[in-house]
Amino acid sequence: MRDVTSDQESKQSKWSMVGKDPYSMPIEKIDLSHPGIWRANEFLPFMERLRSEEPVHYCPESAVGPYWSVMKYKDIMEVDTSPHIYSSEPTIGIVDSFEEFILPAFISMDPPKHDEQRRVVQGVVAPANLKNLEGLIRQRVCTILDELPIDEEFDWVERVSIELTTQMLATLFDFPFEDRNKLTFWSDAATAIPGGGVVSNQAERWEALQECFAYFIRLWNERVNEKPGNDLISMLAHGEATRNMPQEEYLGNVILLIVGGNDTTRNSISGGVLALNENPTEYDKLRADPGLIRNMVSEIIRWQTPLAHMRRTALVDTELGGKKIKAGEKVVMWYASGNRDDESIERANEFLIDRANARQHLSFGFGLHRCMGNRLAEMQLNIVWEEIMKRFHKVEVVGEPERVYSSFVKGYMSLPVKLQPLDWSGSAR
Amino acid sequence: MQAAVKNGVPGIDADCGGSCSCATCHVYIKEEWLDKVGQASPTEEAMLSLSSDRKDNSRLSCQIPVTEALDGLVVTTPEFQF
Is some CB atom of chain B closer than 8 A to the CB atom of A113? Predict the structure, then answer.
């Protein structure tokens, strides 16, 4: 396996746009793929300039090679719903070099293979099945929230967002609870940039994944001999369409479910707390009417856009927004930009928990690859906020969040908070 | 779909706003109306196939233009939208 990281790392300073004025640099130099501006939270004005001046933008040179950026809601919709023109193969990642990750996962397949494979597993996260798990998830959310300190600073990401999503994953898989932190590690390792803190090189990353595979094969073998249960592994092991699936397909799907269900929800839980703190009027609205939670959850998912982009590859020469895209070229849909496009979303740059049509956002993608776990994510966030509002007057952000160094996973490493109890009577916000 | 959304009919989410790309305006057409409503396009078929509640009389309501001929059409909604 080739270690491409050191190569990329050395290019990073050259490519970084941190601290640069988005409006004075030559437009072709704008490179949203570089993680620097995402960690520094400086990406918005760059996206805004591209949306207004060159909504389908070609970046001829970057650390990840040349690529097209699609910035407007409607253009993104067109790309996402045209799999015959814009392929998900060989990968949906902006970096070509992670292809050694060869397990069959339908996120990076086109029809008809995508449709067949997805059909096999989509039932496991369908709302009808989620109903069976709701009680247990709520109970675990309550325990986590009840153990938090009041009026004392702590890291919301570590104590709540990571703990909750890890426990929820463990619940969904009926994964041995005492081993649940392995799930978080495997998930982080699967998407990690070696050297970025999770794993130091590709060999270590592969070792983590091997451990994951062995563990899940053991779980399958146990469950297949037990009575059918409500957990995802049991459903796969007993389901008519899935019980004979090849092992590598099972593992590919397990990884997809672990990764897909982990940091996206984690970062939306943190992002909601931050958004409400930055928009105190909205927090007031929520306290006045907790019935807004369902609508707010959609708005949080739009506002956070936990995956900033998805990549496609043009299969044929085509045209988009007046630009000629050639077969084989890399096309990146910036969901994070489309979700701020005020030609398609009214007052797109405002966080409004009671907005009309809050569900019409790009964060889940559209078309055949639309997020399979979208209902699960919404259910988790609904439960979290219902239980938060029963317990706390405010989850108060008391310091700067630390953001993830990635132009793909848009999220938080830490978020310092203090909790104000329900009967809180202080005067400061 | 537009009629359902404008009149606040529960169970029609219509997340994509009517462009056949989210499968959250799924309805079941009452049998006697199936002929008049017509057939789903391949794109619609593909989206419908993503729903685990898919039945023979499933359609995405955003792909059914309401005409005079459909006056009186009866549809039901699944328990869950995808």
Answer: no
Measured between CA atoms, how close is B27 to chain A, in angstroms?
16
CB burial of A91-117 (b: ≥16 within 10 Å; e: otherwise) equals bbbbbebeeebebbbbbbbbbeebbeb
Q: How far apart are CA A232 and CA A254, in angstroms?
A: 9
Q: Any idea what the Cα angle at residue A106 is, between residues A229 and A311, rounded to 5°?
A: 135
Structure tokens at A425: 């009577």
Please give the backbone phi and psi of residue A213, each rounded to the nearest 5 degrees, phi first: -60, -45
Of B16, B49, B80, nearest to A128 by CB-CB distance is B80
More confident residue, B49 or A157: A157
Rounded to whole angstroms, the Cα distance separating A192 from A189 reads: 5
CATH of the domain at A24: 1.10.630.10
pLDDT at A8 > cutoff 60:
no
Alpha helices in A24-126 (DSSP H): 36-39, 43-53, 73-80, 113-122
Residues of A in contact with B22 (CB under 8 A): 364, 366, 370
CATH number of the CATH domain containing B53: 3.10.20.30
Q: What is the pLDDT of residues A292-334, one digit of tens each?
A: 999 999 999 999 999 999 999 999 999 999 999 999 999 999 9
**ipTM of the complex, rounded to two decimals:** 0.91
Assess if residue A327 is contained within a domain. yes
- Give pTM, 2 decimals: 0.91
The minimum CA-CA distance between A298 and chain B, rounded to whole Å, is: 10
